[in-house]
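For reproducibility, we list the full input for the retinal complex.
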Amino acid sequence: MERLGNATFENYVGLEQGLSEMAYQMVAHVLTLGYAVMLAGLFYFILTMKTVAPKYRISSVLSVVVMVSAFLLLYAQSQNWTSSFVFDKEQGRYFLGEGYDLFNNGYRYLNWLIDVPMLLFQILFVVALTKSKFSSIRNQFWFSGAAMIITGYIGQYYEVTSFGTYAVWGAISTIFFIHILYLMHKVIKEGQEGIPEKAQRTLRSIWVLFLIAWMLYPGAYLMPHLAGIGPEGGLFSEAGVVGRQITYTIADVSSKVIYGVLLTVVARSRSLAEGYEEK
Ligand code: RET
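The corresponding predicted structure, in tokenized form, follows.
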């Protein structure tokens, strides 16, 4: 099982069993949907910017930054998929092409390196902290966000070849993730004080969305090993390959686009309550 070195499990599945037409196309389609949604989101955030008071607009600007970087990186990810597997007429399945690229989810991780700090930073412009210091929360968000991703990025190279190494890096990454969840919970709790009831309700939904959407990423990391450890069992199969890309796409749309839209909704309620009128 080591012919491909540190390649991720998608390549091993593509080398040994190959992918059916449906599995191959579903991934190609879901990746395309991913970057198309980012482009649509880009227009939404630009066009709604003026519906909120100027002090909240940085949140929309940060969503624009997230949309552009996600669009480009998800586009690259999608190209990587179609250039990694080729159709074999004899067997009627897609296999890893000779002399082609290997597939790697690394584009995503590097995209998160930009987007995760931006997404965490963004909420600080929509809510007012009552007890914590802005700069302290911001720095902790950035530090733990970057540390979580870099450690996870290293770990994902070992998902096939060394389960131990993969588990240890994953566990270190999880410690930073728990720190982020703790900070976000605090920010959302403090942020609810003294704002309109409707905005409070939206903030509570943001917490639920955040929790679910962000948990999907470690789920995708674990995908090849869910329901059974190792190359023989569980989702180390084309179901796992498709499942991982669908999970990533749902997570991306929720954590970047829907989250940004809900923050715009909170900023809009607060702007109206403060007497802001769009000109
Ligand atoms: C990793 C490694 C395994 C352990 C954990 C992880 C968490 C990843 C998260 C990523 C969030 C990404 C977002 C991107 C949006 O653009 C790195 C998979 C806990 C939470 C929100």
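The mean pLDDT is 93. The pocket of retinal is lined by residues 112, 115-116, 119, 148-149, 152, 170, 173-174, 177, 214, 217-218, 221, 255-256 (CB under 6 Å). Both points were considered when choosing residues for closer inspection.
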